[in-house]
Amino acid sequence: MYRAKPDDGIVFVTGASSGIGRATALELACRGYRVAVTARRADALDSLVALRPERIFAFPGDVTDGDTMRALIPRIEREIGPIALAFLNAGVSYAMAERRGFDAAIIAKTYSVNVDGTVNCLEPLIAAMLTRGQGQIAINASLAGYNGLPGSFAYGSSKAALIHMSESLQLTYGHRGLRFQVLCHGFVQSEMTATEKDYNMPFMIAPEEAAQIICKGFERGGFEIAFPWPLVAISKAMRMLPYAARLPLIALATRQARRKT
Fold this sequence. Notes:
Elements: E1 10-14, H1 19-30, E2 35-38, H2 42-51, E3 56-58, H3 66-79, E4 83-88, H4 95-98, H5 104-132, E5 135-140, H6 155-173, E6 178-185, H7 191-194, H8 207-220, E7 224-227, H9 229-240, H10 243-257
Parallel strand pairs: 1-2, 1-4, 2-3, 4-5, 5-6, 6-7
């Protein structure tokens, strides 16, 4: 099954203005790729390009705008080269707002970026890669998508949707030369995690360390890239339990994770 290499074309990374996206774009550049990066904040993209101007190219855009993505991805291929590997990483979390109660507006806002933004990129990417008969697409989900969590009406469910979508995409297009991967990770230092004040975040790692794991996963080519292993093991074990055991255990673990004030 196909695995992208630098000679095959470029990498396309969304949500590259900070955190995992920014660190992964830099790591891919270090591994010999040319990288087209997208995010809404043009100034943040410019600062990223300044670090590796010969390897990283900025294409500001909003993934929630389908028309923009349908135009931007062909433009990138015309100006830089065919996209061999895409890392659909753009995502948001409004965890503190979610915990104030069920809010349809917050859920819609989260899905607009996490799910709709991914879908808007997938459509032109799949079309282009099918024409060439090869391509690799990795979708950033989360370990939060494995199980329901208290108050995680929007973020967790959006990531669960991405896991399901990634599985379906691989089953649908895997035999046509496309490889899909899903990234399920725990806590990574970012602007998102910096706003979390209510809960401890065990096994948190720096975005640079996460980027190395992610890029190794791209090269290995397995379907799932999951880390850190202790949280992965716990999350997968929980999924195997019946609800009568799973839900009370998750509730207990969440209470214990709440920071004492």
